[in-house]
C-alpha cells in the first residue's frame, strides 16, 4: 500500500495547466513586444524631430543673409522631399502698444518669422518655430520694408 500512496502523491502537470501557462506566456510576450514596438516608434520620431530641428536652425540662420529680409512666404524641401518647410515673414505688431502715428521709412523694423518644418503625413510630425528679426531698411535701393 505504501508504494501506491507514494505513486499517487507524485503527480505531473495536467494538460490544462500547461495550456494555461502557455496562454499566460503568450499574453506576456504580446504585451512586451507591443511595448518594444511603441518604444521603437518613439525613438524614430525623436530622431526625425531632432533632424528637423537641425534643419530649422540652419534655415533660420540663413534668413536675411546676403539679401534684405522682406515680408512674404517661401517654402521648399530638404533631403529629397523628406522634410518640407514653410517660412512666413510679416511685420511684427506688438499687441500691447498702440500703432504709431508716423512711420519712419529709414528706421529699423521688427519682422516676425514663423517657420514650419514637417515630415511624414501626421500633423504630429511637424515642428513650428517663431522668431523676431530686427532689419535695417535697404537705403540704397529705396525699398521700404
UniProtKB/TrEMBL annotation:
<keyword id="KW-0472">Membrane</keyword>
<keyword id="KW-0812">Transmembrane</keyword>
<feature type="transmembrane region" description="Helical">
    <location>
        <begin position="12"/>
        <end position="34"/>
    </location>
</feature>
<keyword id="KW-1133">Transmembrane helix</keyword>
<dbReference type="InterPro" id="IPR012902">
    <property type="entry name" value="N_methyl_site"/>
</dbReference>
<dbReference type="Pfam" id="PF07963">
    <property type="entry name" value="N_methyl"/>
</dbReference>
<protein>
    <submittedName>
        <fullName>Prepilin-type N-terminal cleavage/methylation domain-containing protein</fullName>
    </submittedName>
</protein>
<keyword id="KW-1003">Cell membrane</keyword>
<dbReference type="InterPro" id="IPR010052">
    <property type="entry name" value="T2SS_protein-GspI"/>
</dbReference>
<keyword id="KW-0997">Cell inner membrane</keyword>
<comment type="similarity">
    <text>Belongs to the GSP I family.</text>
</comment>
<keyword id="KW-0488">Methylation</keyword>
Amino acid at each position: 500500500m505504501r508504494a501506491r500512496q507514494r505513486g499517487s502523491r507524485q503527480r505531473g502537470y495536467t494538460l490544462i495547466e500547461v495550456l494555461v501557462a502557455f496562454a499566460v506566456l503568450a499574453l506576456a510576450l504580446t504585451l512586451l513586444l507591443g511595448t518594444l514596438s511603441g518604444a521603437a516608434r518613439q525613438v524614430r520620431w525623436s530622431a526625425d524631430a531632432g533632424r528637423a530641428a537641425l534643419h530649422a536652425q540652419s534655415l533660420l540662420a540663413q534668413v536675411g543673409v546676403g539679401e534684405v529680409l522682406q515680408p512674404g512666404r517661401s517654402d521648399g524641401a530638404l533631403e529629397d522631399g523628406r522634410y518640407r518647410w514653410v517660412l512666413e515673414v510679416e511685420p511684427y505688431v506688438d499687441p500691447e502698444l498702440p500703432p504709431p502715428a508716423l512711420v519712419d521709412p529709414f528706421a529699423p523694423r521688427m519682422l516676425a518669422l514663423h517657420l514650419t518644418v514637417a515630415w511624414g503625413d501626421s500633423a504630429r510630425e511637424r515642428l513650428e518655430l517663431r522668431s523676431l528679426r530686427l532689419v535695417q531698411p535697404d537705403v540704397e535701393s529705396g525699398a521700404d520694408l
